[in-house]
Amino acid sequence: MTLDRISLADLILERLAVQKDELRKEFSLKGRINSCFIDNLLPVNIAKKIYDAFPSPEEMAIHKSLRENKRVAAQMDLYDPLLEEIVYAFQDQRIIKIVEEITGIEEMTPDEHLYAGGISLMAHGNFLNPHLDNSHDNDRENYRVLNLLYYVTPDWPVENGGNLELWDKGTKRTQRTIHSKFNRLVLMITNKSSYHSVSKVVSDGKRCCVSNYYFSKIPAENEEYFHVTSFYGRPEEPIKDILLKIDSGLRNMVRKVTKKRVVETKHIYKKDSNK
Ligand SMILES: O=C(O)CCC(=O)C(=O)O
Ligand SMILES: [Fe+2]
User: Most buried among 55, 96, 167, 264, by the most CB within 10 A?
Assistant: First the structure.
């Protein structure tokens, strides 16, 4: 079987269809960040192949600051083609349609240029502080409304850290942890209150994730809003919280005035020849 985006999407679709009703119920639970997950998304051998296709951390871009410490890549043609195929499998119209049915979010479009998606890798000591994702796409035309996070590291126990945390009641209260378990796909809403983070990786090995984001003209909220990616300290990091809030506040102010990015993002998949 060739592992192209269409056959991968066939498999994902089949699996989502079986669990659709349960996923829809889970996603719509009240009083928490709308989210759900599905295990055993792909046959184990295929999920393992995807993990094996990941580049070494050194071949990926590093994002390192007070906010986060992780590796990412969006220029997918630099790597094993299977990675590009799995990223774009999640952008198949049939997958978008069933995900719309599960989440109730309408008129979604994928992030074709991988403005924020692609692959990410987190190794020992890496982390992602609590944050709200940027509210819009690069041109500020569409809302970012859904994250699709597919974890592919085999045998990754919860004790390794690197787990997704959803701060349902804000960053001052306790979080809900979603184990970034092998072959698990998480769907999570992104809006004005979807605070989330990745706990520090505390063991050797690499926590690998295939990420996709969906956009929509309609916000996943009742009203319009705009914000840049905004980071916060964890409850035990009060000083860092202040610094990160100043940092987000300044960036937000600049963007509200200029409407466009001051610094062009490098995290984008350039498909033309003059990259
Ligand atoms: O890697 C994860 O589990 C979450 C990543 C994240 O927060 C994001 O991509 O917006
Ligand atoms: Fe995020």
Answer: 167
